[in-house]
Design brief:
Blueprint: H1 3-13, E1 15-18, H2 22-29, H3 34-43, E2 46-50, E3 53-57, H4 60-78, H5 85-94, E4 108-109, E5 114-115, H6 120-131, E6 134-138, H7 145-158, E7 164-169, H8 185-203, H9 206-215, E8 218-222, E9 234-238, H10 246-253, E10 261-266, H11 280-287, E11 294-298, H12 308-323
Parallel strand pairs: 6-10, 6-11, 7-8, 7-9, 9-10
Antiparallel strand pairs: 1-3, 2-3, 4-5
Length: 329
Amino acid sequence: MSTKSKKARDEAQGSQLEFADNAVLARVVGAHDRHLAEIERKLNVEITRRGNRFTLHGASAARAHGAQVLRELYAHAEDGQDVSTADVDRAIRLGLNADSVVPSGSSVTTPKRNIRPRTPGQARYLEALLRNDLVLGLGPAGTGKTYMAVAVGVSMLARGEVDRLILSRPAVEAGERLGFLPGDLKEKVDPYLRPLYDALYDMLPAEQIQRRLDEGIIEVAPLAFMRGRTLAHCYVILDEAQNCSPQQMKMFLTRLGEGARMAVTGDPTQTDLPPGVSSGLAEARAVLADVEGVEMVEFTEADVVRHPLVQRIVRAYAVYDTRRPKRQE
């Protein structure tokens, strides 16, 4: 049989896939099979579904790519998570690139859901968080730096490996803007800390969060509240760390007490500090590079898991920054 005839026969026969749970599959295929249609359009394959069985027709490489996408989406949905258009796009982008394969078995369990890394960068980050006392997660928005850190903290709290979970941000560290906002101190501060609350509510039942906040087991506070404290037997996360000054970063890092773990997250390219003030995150990146017990994980645009457009925006800004003239110091 000629190579051309064999190829035609293989494409006609197609690739077979079967999944166990039809309820999970409903999230994978999407309303009116719209996720399947997206895979077909972008990979130039034809997907036929009969119940929990799929047949993919097309070129061999395209069929293999489509099968991997379906397996990845099924694993994501099997963890109890919805499948969005962005998830489909991400799975397609990862494709068959060996460097983009997310290790199987990488996950962290929280009371509300089992959370799997969705990119190789997230997988490296999760492993670093689980084995080190201090981890710096550096990279663009939408890469899951804070979300994964909160997941590990919630998981350790639920298993009794730490006594408290402390989440902090430097957005209002100096306090100069608080007086212009209505309400008491909590009402002034909470809008700045909302992203941390959002992650918590994704992983813990609301009644548990409120009870643990009242008991001080979970604390969400501005960076200024960390000064003078020793944080022992707790999991501490500093978010938006690019907006710390070097002095604030040193203050925070030296709060680490016995039995404590820390995660520091931030995007070095999005500093909101006043002109002339250097970023504590950038300095920590250099100072801690060779310190034992500290691990740094760098995310790239390939790890963005938000809307597909976010990845293209991050890439466009990176290109623009390399081309524009440097400011004179």
